[in-house]
Specification:
Layout (H helix, E strand, L loop, with lengths): L2 H6 L3 H11 L4 E5 L2 E4 H17 L7 E5 L4 H13 L2 E4 L6 H11 L3 E4 L4 H11 L5 E4 L11 E2 H5 L16 E6 L9 E5 H14 L7 E4 L6 H14 L2 E4 L5 H11 L3 E3 L2 H9 L13 E5 L5 H10 L4 E7 L6 E5 L13 E2 L3 E6 L12 E7 L5 E2 L3 H7 L5 E9 L5 E6 L4 E3 L2 E3 L1 H9 L4 E11 L3 E10 L7 H11 L8 E4 L13 H7 L7
Helix pairs in contact: 2-3, 2-4, 2-9, 3-4, 5-6, 8-9, 11-12
Length: about 525
């Protein structure tokens, strides 16, 4: 490693060490009954990094993590970064075949799993064809299981010194596999430079400070919680509380007990919090900064959030994994004035709206949202063709359709794949959803297009009623006819108990389209 590079570099490991130097005794992370100061966190990370290197893993090797949120997950995030390894977080909702696909595609050398997912890992590893040099159980396993070594046993004898590895800002630190709602997941390669540049945008545009007390409740395998909140708050030297999962009662209790100031949830979790009987029973007065993203927030739900948390300020973070994931921000002062908007480009982001030829469209017209930013991924792992398509014309193509108004605020109209073409007219599913959310008995809704012999695609609403309410399809049909143009109104309404979604809160419209593809024929 050259002296010049060592003096200039800025990696995930470096930001943790600097936070330790500033506030060594301050609480860094809390998980259940375990609390680590910044000194203790950095020491444990160094131990883990040295232990990983002692197992023969070298710079650039991929190490997969299959686990719910835990302190070990966060430790591994920084330990792998310090050792030069590339972390591959895996969605714990996947089955063994899907896990095997990722293990094979990423060609992993090490696998860290929590005990509850060890059986799935045992099924997936032989199917993947990978040769693992290290198999370890994280999240405090009670004992070794076969070849699976408990993580804390693995690192217990390792040294506390900072590992000396030749790291560069442009080295890949994470490969995050997209949620795969459309097809096989793609491996998004993010470098140290990508994520730290994104941290800066998130901190500045999100109004974050080192005094915040943050909850990390959404899955850490997802870029939103990992890169918009865990990473930036460690960078700042703030205190965080890791929750195993986003259970509404636990989140509300944690806010009250630890005087939490910051909370991020996708819209589906915000809805669950608002509907929880504990919402009005808990003291939530410490909550100052609230964030939503990962899916479109219905305007009616946002208004309810503002009404019931009057002292809190809200931010909308919009983006996707490929931009680490922040692209645009709607700030508190614009929440109601620009309700439904994704805001303006972040500090390190340039955004425009283009047509199919890549030419910028006039303000107020629909086009694809594209970005230029240092947040943008290095590319899709082992997929040069899709990488080239994503960066065609020198801009990253999001696949989202949007409109930019005269003030430069962007509204996401729909995913390209979710635009419904019915009877020769384009129908944005989001517009129909926003209207249906205004019905007083509706809890959730997803609007899709289903095959139809005449309309080609028929607008279809899948509606979940609020608890204790009764809804009939005709109630929604009549409501829509009163407020929407006839071609936008649903041809079919399905009343459902719930909507399929992935752990990041995105509704899986692909599953709904498959489930109801024969609706018109029936």
């Amino acid at each position: 490693m050259s002296d010049l590079n060592r003096a200039r570099r800025n990696t995930l490991g470096d930001i943790l060490r600097r936070s330790r130097a500033r506030n060594p005794d301050k609480t860094a992370l809390r998980f259940e009954e375990e609390v680590l100061s910044y000194r203790q966190l950095d020491d444990t990370v160094n131990q883990a990094a040295n232990a990983i290197l002692a197992q023969g893993l070298k710079k650039g090797d991929r190490a997969a993590v299959l686990s719910r949120n835990s302190l070990d997950f966060a430790i591994l995030n920084f330990a792998l970064a310090k050792s030069g390894g590339i972390m591959v977080p895996i969605n714990y909702m996947l089955n063994a075949d899907d896990v095997a696909f990722i293990l094979n595609h990423a060609d992993v050398s090490a696998l860290f799993v929590s005990p509850e997912f060890q059986p799935i890992a045992e099924q997936a590893v032989p199917k993947s064809g990978c040769t693992l040099r290290l198999k370890s159980l994280i999240s405090r396993p009670s004992a070794q299981i076969g070849e699976w070594v408990p993580f804390h046993e693995l690192i217990s004898g390792a040294g506390l010194a900072e590992p000396e590895v030749d790291l560069w800002d442009d080295d890949v630190v994470h490969i995050l596999y997209t949620s795969g709602t459309e097809s096989r997941p793609k491996g998004v390669m993010l470098t140290h430079k990508n994520v730290i540049s994104e941290y800066v945008s998130t901190i500045i545009d999100g109004g974050m400070t080192s005094d915040d007390v943050a909850i990390h409740a959404l899955p850490l395998f997802h870029s939103a919680q990992l890169h918009c909140f865990l990473g930036p708050y460690i960078y700042l030297g703030a205190s965080g509380i890791i929750l195993e999962q986003a259970a509404p009662a636990t989140i509300l209790e944690t806010i009250e007990t630890h005087r939490v100031t910051q909370l991020f949830c996708p819209p589906t979790v915000w809805i669950s919090l608002l509907r929880s009987p504990d919402f009005d029973r808990r003291d939530l007065s410490s909550l100052q900064k609230c964030y939503y993203g990962a899916a479109i927030m219905p305007v009616e739900v946002l208004r309810e959030c503002n009404l019931r948390l009057p002292a809190a300020r809200f931010w909308n973070f919009y983006g996707q994994t490929e931009v680490a994931p922040l692209a645009t921000v709607l700030k508190p002062e614009d929440q109601l004035r620009k309700a439904g908007s994704a805001g303006k480009p972040g500090l390190n982001v340039e955004t425009k709206i283009v047509d199919d030829n890549g030419d910028e469209v006039p303000r107020g017209q629909i086009g694809e949202i594209v970005h230029r930013t240092s947040h943008a991924m290095l590319g899709y792992y082992r997929d040069e063709e899709k990488t080239a398509a994503a960066f065609h014309g020198g801009w990253f193509h999001s696949g989202d359709l949007g409109i930019m108004d005269e003030e430069g605020y962007i509204t996401v109209v729909d995913r390209k794949k979710d635009l419904i073409k019915s009877g020769g007219e384009n129908v944005a599913s989001r517009e129909v959803e926003e209207l249906i959310y205004q019905h007083p008995k509706v809890s959730e809704v997803a609007v899709i297009g289903v095959p139809h012999p005449y309309w080609i695609e028929a607008v279809t609403a899948v509606v979940v009623p609020k608890s204790g309410e009764t809804l009939a399809p005709d109630d929604i049909l009549q409501f829509c006819k009163e407020h929407l143009s006839s071609f936008k109104s649903p041809k079919y309404v399905v009343i459902a108990d719930n909507l399929p979604r992935n752990p990041s809160g995105k509704i899986l419209k692909r599953e709904l389209r498959v489930q109801y593809q024969s609706l018109a024929a029936e």
